[in-house]
Predict the structure.
Amino acid sequence: MAAKKTHVALLFGGNSSEHDVSKRSAHNVFDALKKDLYDVDIFMFSKAGILMGKEASLRIWNGENEDAVVAEEMAKMDMSNVLAPIAALSDIKDIDIFWPVIHGNLGEDGTIQGLFKLLNKPFIGAPQTASGMAFDKELTKRIMNQAGVRNTNYVLVTPENKSENDYATVAAKLGETLFVKPAKQGSSVGMAMVKNAEEYDRALADALQYDFKVIIEETILHPRELEISILGNEAPKASKLGEVIVPESDAFYDYNNKFVDASGVVFDLPAVVEPELEAEITDMALRAYQALELKGLTRIDFLVDANGVPYLGEPNTLPGMTNISLYPQMWEVSGISYSDLLDKIIEYGFAEFERNTKISYDFVSLGDEHVGEKRYNADKA
C-alpha cells in the first residue's frame, strides 16, 4: 500500500507590489514539488487581499485573465460577512501544511502566519512575530545593533518628525548620498538613492506613501552585493555565497533587474570571495537569523565596501523562487537540488509545528471576584 501523500496548500498572490513575482515563484515551487510525495492545491489572494476559491485560483493559474476572474468571484461574495476575505478557506480540505509563496505585505509581515496559528496548522517559514520583525527594516536594524551584527547607519523619519529631518540635517549625519526606504516594503518598492535636497524631498514623499516609517541610510559607494541562503530552525545552516553584479549604468539592484529584466545582471555562483570574508558573512547571517528567531528559510543580503567590510542589508523570510531568484540557486551550488530543498523546507515546517505543541498553556479559574477597598482622594483629583 502506497504511503499517504502530504497535502500542501500553496498560497500565492497578495496585496503587495510583488503580486506577480509571487505568481512566478508559486509556479516554480509547484513544478519542483515531488508529485509522488505531495498533493498540491493552489489558492490565490487577489490584489485586494481577498482569497479566491480553488476553482477560481486554478483558472487564473492556467492563464485566464486575473482581473476578470476576480471580478466574477467578487460579484458572488457577501462582503458584509466579516469572514468574506478568507471564506474560501472552506474549500481547503484535509490540508497537512500551508506553503505561503507570498512576498511582501500579507506574506512576510506576519499576517498570514497569524492566520495559520489560529487555524492550528503547520506552515513553512518564520512565525508571525519573527516575520513581522524581519519585514520591518527599522526593527531589524535595532535588533542587529543589539546583537552586534554590523549594518549601515540610518535615521528614522516619520510624518511626525519629518520637519526635523530635512536633507541638510540628515546629510550632515550620514553623508550627501543617501538611500530612502519605506521600513515595511519589499524589493526596492518606494526606494531611491538621492544626492540633493530636491531628490530627497521627492523620494521621502514617495516613500511615505508606502509606510509611515521611512529609514534614511548612509550609502556604501560601489559595494559588492553578496547574498546567502539560510535553511533550518534551531540549528540553521548556511549556503555558499552568491554575488549580484549589476550593470555600471544601474545605481543599485532595483526591482526591475531583480524580477523583470535581469539580462544585464551577472550572478556569480558561488561568489569568488576571500575565505575570511565568506566566514565573516556566514557568521553574521547565522547570528542575524537566530537573533530574529527566524525559522525554515531566509535569504540575507549583504553589502561589502571598498575595504572588504560587510554590512547586513536585510533578511527576506519568503525569498523569491523565480528563475532569477538566488535562494534556490545558492543551495544548488551548495549541493542541494531545488526539489530536495523543498522537501527540507517542508520538514522544517512540520518540525516547528511539533515543537510548538510542547508549549504548555495553563488555564486557572478565577473563582469569585474579591475587590479591595477603593479610596477616592478628592483633593488629588
